[in-house]
Design brief:
globular, eleven-stranded mixed β-sheet, Isopropylmalate Dehydrogenase, 43% helix, 2 domains, single chain, 11 helices, 17% strand, 315 residues
């Protein structure tokens, strides 16, 4: 059992669910610094993943030795440099030897470049997008915030996939009713604010079955998306207003600032995951807490198990 965690009760439940499902094979791309190796070892010890270290053997072993970390039991795929590490991690997935990828000590752009490569990558028909699964102190349930790391200025078509990816994640994480708030600065549609037009269009697309699995409302400002009293004061009547558990930002800058404000000013923890590829991609940062890193691995493990369970049976 995972020890009780009064600070991150939702993360503790996620981790326990992932442990119960069993570890998945994760290619750790270029783990050449302490935090990357430590993240893989911590998740392995907890029974969330079976790590495969992918990177220059000498650099990885030197970093592990300097940090006093024992990696002798972990398989290691030797590569020349970070670009080769990213490509090899993707290749392991394509060969059926890995169920997810974890970013090590390389730039996100390097990893994503290998993932989206048209010939050798892991693209699907869905646009890639990033989700933070956030544990906010005082908030009863986790919040999904998207997209704060991949799509800079998403088009309406991009936002359809961003929303659908987030809904699919929420359903795998067993959110129950998935209530999606399409965020803007105001809660009324204004021709002068493109984000409000997109929000209205996304809600109508959900009405027409072009987005499925969740209840959408928008545009909604942040206050009336998550606070019932604020929604009541504005006389907004909807199943989402004041009760949203998925927050869709109008662009990357807004999403990133929202997520980091919650982390550094409200004490929230954030698990990061990239969706839309053949397998989940774990994005960790040196600034992440241990709880955030483990929760990211737990989310990826649950997604990987879901994909494996829903894959067509060959024969």
């Amino acid at each position: 059992m995972v020890p009780p965690d009064d600070t991150h009760p939702n993360y503790a439940r996620l981790i326990e669910a992932a442990r119960s499902a069993g570890p998945v094979r994760v290619a750790v791309a270029h783990p050449c610094e302490r935090h990357a190796i430590e993240s893989a070892l911590d998740a392995a010890r907890l029974g969330l993943i079976h790590p495969i270290l992918v990177g220059p053997r000498a650099r990885i072993e030197r970093a592990a030795s300097a940090a006093g970390l024992d990696i002798a039991a972990l398989p290691l795929e030797d590569t020349e440099h970070s670009h080769a590490s990213a490509a090899r991690a993707v290749e392991l997935v394509r060969q059926g030897r890995a169920d997810a990828i974890m970013k090590g000590s390389l730039h996100t752009d390097e990893l994503m470049g290998a993932v989206v490569n048209s010939a050798t990558g892991l693209r699907t028909g869905r646009r890639l997008s990033h989700c933070f699964v956030m544990e906010v102190p005082g908030h009863e349930s986790p919040l999904i915030i998207t997209d704060a790391a991949i799509n800079i200025i998403p088009s309406l078509a991009d936002k359809v996939d961003i929303v659908q990816n987030a809904i699919d994640l929420a359903r795998v994480l067993q959110f129950g009713e998935v209530r999606v708030a399409i965020l803007a600065a105001v809660e009324t549609v204004s021709p002068k604010m493109p984000s409000t037009i997109d929000a209205a269009a996304l809600c109508k697309m959900a009405d027409r079955g072009q987005i499925t699995g969740g209840v959408l409302d928008g545009p909604l400002a942040m206050d009336n998306a998550i606070d019932p009293e604020a929604a009541a004061i504005k006389k907004i009547v909807s199943p989402v207003a004041g009760r949203a558990n998925v927050l869709v930002a109008p662009d990357l800058e807004a999403g990133n600032m929202l997520a980091k404000s919650l982390t550094f000013m409200a004490g929230a923890a954030s698990a990061g995951i990239v969706l839309g590829a053949r397998v989940p991609l774990i994005l960790t940062s040196r600034a992440d807490s241990v709880a955030s890193r483990l929760a990211s691995c737990a989310v990826a493990a649950l997604l990987a198990h879901h994909k494996l369970a829903s894959a067509p049976v060959e024969g």
